[in-house]
């Protein structure tokens, strides 16, 4: 029995959901998102809840039960509230700025890094040492944050680099004489 799949997905007010063939569609204040549904699960809308049940007792159907429920939950949450990932930049001279449709990063290299911002994602830099990535698709927001972090990951000796705001960097002691 799936521990995630057995619970319904609550649909908040202001969000409309529908099943069109093999596709799940959610519309909210942040736009519209679509997701293909698996053949192994049965998805139904009852009132303001979405229920997901496996069609058979096969291992694949049970795997897709919880996965489909989690993806639908992320879709509904994304169109109603959206997802945000915050990044912090540590280091002398390291900074970020949003210029038009590009994120300009100065990370100690001989050149600045210009990272294009996709259309369905917004990035803000309230301070030159913090980046806020917001969007309705959790996978895209997380992927962008991971790519930006990979330009200069945090190092354990001085803590310089880009890290998630919720991340804790384990610090190491330097060389001793």
Automatic annotation (TrEMBL):
Large ribosomal subunit protein uL6 alpha-beta domain: residues covered: 11-82, 91-164
Record bears the keyword Ribosomal protein: yes
Record GO biological process: cytoplasmic translation
Source organism superkingdom: Bacteria
Keywords: Ribonucleoprotein, Ribosomal protein, RNA-binding, rRNA-binding
Keyword rRNA-binding: yes
Classification via InterPro entries: Ribosomal_uL6-like, Ribosomal_uL6-like_a/b-dom_sf, Ribosomal_uL6_a/b-dom, Ribosomal_uL6_bac-type, Ribosomal_uL6_CS
GO cellular component assignments: cytosolic large ribosomal subunit
Family of this protein: Belongs to the universal ribosomal protein uL6 family.
Chain's role: This protein binds to the 23S rRNA, and is important in its secondary structure. It is located near the subunit interface in the base of the L7/L12 stalk, and near the tRNA binding site of the peptidyltransferase center.
Record's subunit section: Part of the 50S ribosomal subunit.
UniProt name for this protein: Large ribosomal subunit protein uL6
Species of the source: Magnetospirillum gryphiswaldense (strain DSM 6361 / JCM 21280 / NBRC 15271 / MSR-1)
Biological classification of the source: Bacteria, Pseudomonadati, Pseudomonadota, Alphaproteobacteria, Rhodospirillales
């Amino acid at each position: 029995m799936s521990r995630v799949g057995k619970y319904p997905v609550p649909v908040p007010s202001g969000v409309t959901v529908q099943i069109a063939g093999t596709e799940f569609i959610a519309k909210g204040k942040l736009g519209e998102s679509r997701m293909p549904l698996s053949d192994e699960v049965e998805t139904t809308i009852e009132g303001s809840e979405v229920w997901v049940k496996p069609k058979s007792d096969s291992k694949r159907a049970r795997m897709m039960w919880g996965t489909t429920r989690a993806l639908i939950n992320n879709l509904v949450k994304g169109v109603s509230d959206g997802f945000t990932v915050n990044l912090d930049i540590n280091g002398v001279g390291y900074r970020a700025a949003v210029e038009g449709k590009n994120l300009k990063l100065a990370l100690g290299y001989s050149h600045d890094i210009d990272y294009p911002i996709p259309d369905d994602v917004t990035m803000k830099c309230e301070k030159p040492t913090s980046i806020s990535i917001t969007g309705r698709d959790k996978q895209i927001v997380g992927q962008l944050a991971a790519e930006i972090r990979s330009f200069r990951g945090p190092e354990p000796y001085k803590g310089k680099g880009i890290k998630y705001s919720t991340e804790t960097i384990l610090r190491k002691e330097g060389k001793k004489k």
